[in-house]
Amino acid sequence: MGNKGILVGKYHNKYLMLGGQQFVLLAAPTRSGKGVAIVIPNLLNYSDSVVVLDLKLENFLLTSKFRAKNGQKVYLFSPFSED
């Protein structure tokens, strides 16, 4: 966890970051790479608070332990879970 800002892409092997406190909405079709290209890298890099709508829990399962290990409080709100 480190650089302040939101990772928005990569250009010539350099990461492009949107600095400052921003709100981001990411919308793209299913299986278009949102998770691996944008969501997961940001959950692993961004050290401030994040809220992610993650119905399948894929992003939570991949990143929650890392964030907790780095001092973040991690919560799962799953009101429609059957367990």
From TrEMBL:
Keywords associated with the record: Cell membrane, Membrane, Plasmid, Transmembrane, Transmembrane helix
Superkingdom to which the source organism belongs: Bacteria
Keyword Transmembrane: yes
Principal location: membrane
InterPro entries, A to Z: T4SS-coupling_protein (IPR051539), TraG/VirD4 (IPR003688)
Subcellular location: Cell membrane
Record's bilayer topology term: Multi-pass membrane protein
One Pfam family, short name: T4SS-DNA_transf
GO cellular component assignments: plasma membrane
Designated name of the protein: TraN
Species annotation: Escherichia coli
Gene name as annotated: traN
